[in-house]
Amino acid sequence: IYDDRVTFTLPDGWTEIPPGNLEELTMRVAEATGGRSAEYYQHGYYPPTFADDPWLPHVLVQIRESGRLPYGRFLGFDTGALDDEGPDGLPPLILDVAVDRLKFDTERMCLGLEHTLDLRFKGRVRILTASFLTERGVVAFHFADRERRIDESRPIFDNLVAGVTLAPEIAYRPRLTDRWPGLYFFAAAALMAVLLILTILRQRRRP
Fold first, then answer.
1. pLDDT over 60 at 111, yes or no
2. pLDDT tens per residue, range 7-33
3. Residue of 114, 106, 113, 112 lying closest to 71 (CA atoms)
4. Helix, strand, coil proportions of the chain in percent (round to 5)?
5. Mapped to the 3 state alphabet, what secondary structure does 100-155 carry?
6. Contact between 72 and 181 (Cβ < 8 Å)
7. Model confidence pTM above 0.70
8. pLDDT given at position 88
């Protein structure tokens, strides 16, 4: 995908969701979340058993070219397991939402997120997300399945994510200023101060 800049291996039997069905699924996600997740997904995949349980499980792929993000802002997200309730004022189709896990992998520059939605007409759905930082933005993989069988289906997502490869042209390249996002501005301010002092000293030395 992404003009061959991102490669991965699908589980046996999984196929790509046709564009029309992908658009319908995106609309259903937006409806279920009250428009909070009205995102655009470039690709989606499902197993041959998809018809037995409409829309679950599935994998959605989101490519964002919103600009490079400094990884330092995610270092504090290594929280492991969580028990965090979602925001108040949930849309009608969501009875409850909880963030279960949040972790940043510094080796792969990937932010992992797990959260659970309690949907009015679908029951409890667990969503696993792996967001890979790139030099242009983010490539995110979202896996959704019923909570009651997530332990059985989790290896599907884990194996897919383990096989994700980014082309060198978009692969994230860490920079010194990434770890301390404000370092660049402090350095710039310090440089300006030094230049100002040098200018004052030169003026004083003039006859």
1. yes
2. 999 999 999 999 888 888 778 776 666
3. 106
4. 35, 30, 35
5. EEEEEECCCCEEEEEEEEEECCCEEEEEEEEEEEECCCEEEEEEEEEHHHHHHHHH
6. yes
7. yes
8. 53
